[in-house]
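Researcher: We're reviewing a set of sequences before deciding which ones to prioritize for further study. For each one, I'd like a predicted 3D structure that I can look through quickly. This is Phosphoglucosamine mutase. If possible, include the structure in token form so it fits the rest of the review sheet.
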Amino acid sequence: MTLLKYFGTDGIRGIAGKSPMTPNFMIKLGQIITEVFRSNKKKIIIGRDTRISGSMLQYSLEFGILSRGFSTLLVNCIPTPAIAYLVRFFNASGGIVISGSHNIFYDNGVKIFSEDGVKLSNKKELFIEKKLKNFTYNCSYQENFGFSQIIKDASEKYINFCKNIFSNNINLSKFTIIIDCANGSTYKIAPKIFQDLGGKVIIISNYPNGININKNSGSTNINQLKKLVILKKADIGLAFDGDGDRVIMVDHLGNKINGDQIIYVIAKYYLKNNQLYGGVVGTLMTNMNIVLALKKLGIPFYASKIGDRYIYQTLKKKKWLLGAEQSGHIILLDKHSTGDGIIASLQVLLIMIRNNKSLHCLSNQVKLLPQVLLNVIFDRNKDFEKDTKFQYVINQSKKFLGLNSRLFIRKSGTESYVRIMVEGENYNRIKKVARSIADVIKSI
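Model: Here's the predicted structure for Phosphoglucosamine mutase, in token form for your review sheet.
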């Protein structure tokens, strides 16, 4: 497989103001994207999240697109899944989201959707990478420049899309719902959807200032949400990430419900109601007890590579509907073409209504195998796998862990981290192993 310089597991990501997240790069990228989206439509949707660098990068990207004769439809601050929907709604050539997703504010990124509302294929990413290596800037003739148009009701269109999927079946009036918007792109949209459907909604982390996105909030930090769910005696807590394509939940007892547990609840419901076609696609990090529980129900499971677009590609290949990452990407292909935190949340609430059961009751049927997840800061361009110290600690760790355990170590595709996952029956043992591996990687 060709190693890509710019694209990771979820688009292009980096520190805003440094390569590749610079205005010059974005102009080049904008021009090249028009070659990927060759069509007679010649219009591209552009949205962004709330981080302070978003406007600068958006304008630069737009300059490149307009200079090549494509027009832009600007939807401003909006969740990533909304772009996937709006591309189809407006019959556009494609869509672009400027977002650093779950990362802290100083990171930013670019996610690109094709005209059918799905993320770019490996082939198209490779095409862009090759073009970037030997790029020569050039413009169309002035009379061929594109137009820029602001779509003022884009949020309303997406809100209606989400509500209409469930509106005939769901009434949230019996629920108290606490929503953590991570000071990100769901901060207006998510509260309105759940309120419009009747829910008593309490909102936190919904005052973005450009630099507080994901800060001690959202799907990567649910401490505040857990406390508030218990304090307010809420039925459920929903923590979205900065761009709204992930959700982590909290049950009424304050327990974290991750993507593995969420997809188990949904898959079991689909099976019971004859809505399940095929099985479930997870990743190499999916908790083994979830895999075993699905198989016990007779639901096939397949582990794809890390990254929601790989899950999507596997689902399409197998003609299945349900996929998820532990981190909260939930893909329901009968509902949407991409992972959507809001839609996944509505689906779980519908299941709670139909079964007259709490989220805790639905999810605690499977006891997760203990896992320890650690992130170690590491240069993504450097190698550690072949280092003798690393190989030695891995071999010793496998012997120490024994049966019914797993090690999974990988470079992040979105941040400068090595991600370490150790799974096993004894928490203290796996924690010790994870820390010893982290120490060796730090020394390298």
